[in-house]
TrEMBL record:
<dbReference type="InterPro" id="IPR010144">
    <property type="entry name" value="CRISPR-assoc_prot_Csd1-typ"/>
</dbReference>
<dbReference type="Pfam" id="PF09709">
    <property type="entry name" value="Cas_Csd1"/>
</dbReference>
<protein>
    <submittedName>
        <fullName>CRISPR-associated protein (Cas_Csd1)</fullName>
    </submittedName>
</protein>
Amino acid sequence: MVCAERIGAAVTTLSTSPDHHSVIGDDTMLLWWRSGGGTPLPLARLLTDPDPAALGDLDVSGQHCALLLGAGVGRMSMRFLWDEPAADTVLRIGDWYDRTAVYDGDLGRTVHHGIGLLHRAATSRWNPVTEKYFAAPTRLRPADLWTAALTGTTPRTHGEAALAAIRADGMANSPRAAMLRVSGLAGE
């Protein structure tokens, strides 16, 4: 594990560089870097502002390394470590784009939503009086969506929350449809 050997020395540097980290929710930080040459992947941009066309322009040489850190009381804990060829990470992000793409009838085109919007779609509720969404209490972590996107896993709990939100407030929109699709709760 080439990536694991470099974690200790790099955490401070990575956590202060916007090109190498993203704060996820209140208690989690994702750090990423490249080993063996190549430009670091712009994970924050790729997963919060999806652009399938941009994937073809990325440098996929070397190893891509990422570390998901969680904050505890007076300590940090490692929640997940990725160490894989950068080309595999880019393919997985492309697969995430494919699995979250939905046709938006209002816009008349297929749309891709960033992870932040997907998380809010699964966890928010519609208020018919104000005609706005409001944040509902949840135990779902946005970091689980980042992990799902980078590992190719299915974020089933987020999909179940999106389905419950649709049932509760009767509002089906493209971010909620994307959550149902990526979680495997919607048919093709």
